[in-house]
Design goal:
- By secondary structure, the chain is mainly α.
- It is built from 2 helices and no strands.
- The protein starts with a helix and ends in a 20-residue tail after the last helix.
């Protein structure tokens, strides 16, 4: 995981703790839980795109005296 993805994961966890604390202290709020779910889905998307394998090495164009020129 890259730095921004780790930061997003920490923020998502912190938001879960804060949403849970709010729910325990003041009662459930559907919008808070909806927001946390959206944040979680975005975090999962970042982690998935971050862990995607690269397409492969890039090919270098041929060089040298026999190389074709466009």
């Amino acid at each position: 995981m890259s730095g921004p993805t780790k930061t997003m994961a920490v923020l998502t966890f912190a938001a879960l703790v804060m949403t849970t604390a709010y729910t325990v202290a003041l009662g459930s709020s559907g919008w808070l839980w909806f927001g946390w779910i959206v944040l979680g889905v975005v975090t999962i998307g970042m982690a998935a795109s971050d862990s995607a394998a690269p397409a492969g090495p890039r090919r270098r164009p041929p060089t040298g005296p026999g190389a074709a020129r466009p």
